[in-house]
Task: inverse folding
């Protein structure tokens, strides 16, 4: 009997040891899967100065910093700039823009950390109206936005003439870029095939009395690396056609292995008219009056798409 009790005691001790080891292992797993604790964010607006005054045409430099914890710097879309008058105005640590609405603005820079931590700082900026009474504002993209070179850039803006009336005619609204010059006409356009680099986008508005005003924002286009090679064969850039005249677009593209890309894998878009055709050749009728940036996007998968573009003037 004594030996039987001793065996039972030894068995119970072994089971207890196994249970303790299992519990210890589970605690290690829980610790390993626990998210790191939230950290404080220090946010600061460096420029413009609090209470600064600028004219609508003045290019205002916005710059700020956001430090997570001791030395982790937050960047790009982790930093969001807003105006209490104009809404979202920019992204990132640094950008330039003008054309904000006249009046007093409360400018807020909000920073968001990887675990949802948030902090913000606010200061005042006053914008003085143009002498001719016109207003031009770019609502999209926010200044400082980053896109890939194979994406379409969504541009949208509004303008008010010196009599307080909206300017809505496509031909009276014109977009240009410091890198690609002509982008097209219209209050809302989507040009593609933009040159990689820092663009200063400008929207120029012309009122019925011939007066003009403009607004500008920074846009950064990152190079999207792809083996696809594409070329627009016709028409040549800056070709002019009459309104209502059919336009034949043709292009060619090859993948990384040299195989032709054809059919729906070749998509044609106009900055003013949206999608206008597919395939190596397409004929388009009744394009809107104005300057178009026509883009051909080629690729068999999202990871391989490239984009090229030309300027076409319909008059």
Result:
């Amino acid at each position: 009997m004594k030996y039987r009790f001793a065996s039972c005691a030894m068995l119970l001790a072994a089971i207890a040891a196994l249970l303790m080891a299992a519990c210890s292992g589970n605690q290690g797993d829980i610790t390993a899967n626990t998210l790191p604790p939230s950290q404080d964010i220090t946010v600061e607006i460096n420029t413009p100065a609090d209470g600064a005054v600028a004219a609508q045409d003045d290019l205002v430099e916005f710059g700020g910093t956001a430090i997570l914890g001791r030395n982790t710097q937050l960047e790009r879309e982790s930093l969001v700039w807003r105006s209490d008058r104009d809404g979202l105005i920019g992204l990132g640590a640094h950008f330039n823009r003008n054309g904000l609405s006249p009046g007093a603005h409360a400018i807020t820079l909000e920073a968001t950390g990887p675990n949802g931590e948030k902090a913000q700082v606010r200061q005042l900026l006053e914008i003085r109206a143009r002498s001719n009474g016109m207003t031009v504002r770019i609502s999209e993209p926010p200044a400082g936005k980053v896109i890939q070179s194979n994406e379409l850039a969504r541009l949208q803006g509004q303008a008010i003439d010196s009599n307080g009336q909206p300017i809505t005619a496509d031909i009276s609204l014109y977009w240009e870029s410091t890198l690609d010059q002509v982008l097209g006409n219209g209050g809302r356009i989507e040009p593609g095939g933009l040159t990689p680099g820092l663009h200063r986008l400008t929207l120029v508005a012309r009122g019925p009395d011939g007066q003009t005003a403009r607004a500008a924002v920074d846009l950064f286009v990152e190079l999207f690396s792809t083996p696809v090679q594409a070329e627009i064969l016709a028409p040549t850039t800056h070709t002019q056609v009459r309104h209502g005249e059919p336009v034949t677009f043709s292009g060619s593209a090859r993948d990384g292995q040299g195989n032709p890309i054809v059919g729906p894998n070749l998509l044609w878009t106009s900055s003013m008219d949206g999608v206008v055709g597919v395939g190596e050749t397409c004929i388009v009728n009744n394009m809107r009056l104005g300057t178009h940036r026509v883009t051909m996007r080629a690729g068999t998968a999202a990871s391989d798409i490239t984009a090229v573009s030309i300027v076409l003037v319909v008059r």
User: Anything to note?
Assistant: Confidence is low (pLDDT under 50) at residues 1-35. The chain has three domains: 38-129, 132-225, 229-314. The first strand starts at residue 41 and ends at 47. The two ends are 110 Å apart (CA to CA).
